[in-house]
Amino acid sequence: MDIRRLHAFVVLAEELHFGRAARRLHVSQPPLSIAIRKLEDELEVRLFERDSRNVALTEAGKALLGRARHLVAESARATDEARRVARGEAGVLSVAYTPTATYEILPRVIAAFRRAHPDIALELREMRSPDQVAAIDEGRVELGIACLPLEGDLETRVLATESLVAALPSRHRLAKKTRVDVSELKGEPFVIVRPDVEPAWAGAVARALAKHGVGGDVVQETDTKIAMLGLVAAGVGVSVVSSSMRVLERRGVVMRPVAGVGVRLRIGVVSRPDRSARAQAFLDAC
């Protein structure tokens, strides 16, 4: 059934007057009469009893009215939802994120986005930064929050720049200092997260430390930063990590800024140039 004819039927059923119904529909009476007649022909029933003075619903018309109202309302809602999705005001947005983003960036960005766009549902997927490139190119996610830089042709917007801090056992000789010079870490055994987890940042940190003869004695690699901090707390070694990790506050570990190293680690949001309206809305909220 044509939804426009159903709408015309509902309005006429409510007004029971062709002139008033036509004015509500912003049409003249002849097109309204044609729409009602075509609906009746389609249904093969008479919906109205009408003469030159009166219009009344038939029993069939009364039976149709409730369902017609529901269909017209559902059509309006579906149309509105489709238009809102097209404008980036509703729908589902799939976002990949590196675990590093969960310390500071992700909570802030998600909160801002949900305030601005409460009708867009977020589908969040934890993913290594290098894996996000293929996931975006293949359409498995629309956006990524990643440790930069990444290979590929994705557009990038930097969200934060981080410095380096030393993660030290709480009883370490340097733990009482407010700041640690990079040279003071020379000769220390290091516990690190596997470099392939976040290769861009791991490579940048390793190169920066190597210029000062630091970090060469790696005694343990871990799969996660949580495990790495646990081994630091156990006294297995020290580590140098991004400054946002200070929010973890692991018992038995102290974090101290590292002086004498100029490296800055960037974290940002990556996307295709032809991103959707809802993906653009996420970028605008960042």
Automatic annotation (TrEMBL):
KW Transcription (keyword) present: yes
Record key words, sorted: DNA-binding, Transcription, Transcription regulation
Residues covered by the HTH lysR-type domain: 1-58
Entry's Gene Ontology molecular function annotations: DNA binding; DNA-binding transcription factor activity
Membrane keyword on record: no
GO cellular component: protein-DNA complex
Pfam family, one: HTH_1
Family, similarity comment: Belongs to the LysR transcriptional regulatory family.
Descriptive protein name: LysR family regulatory protein CidR
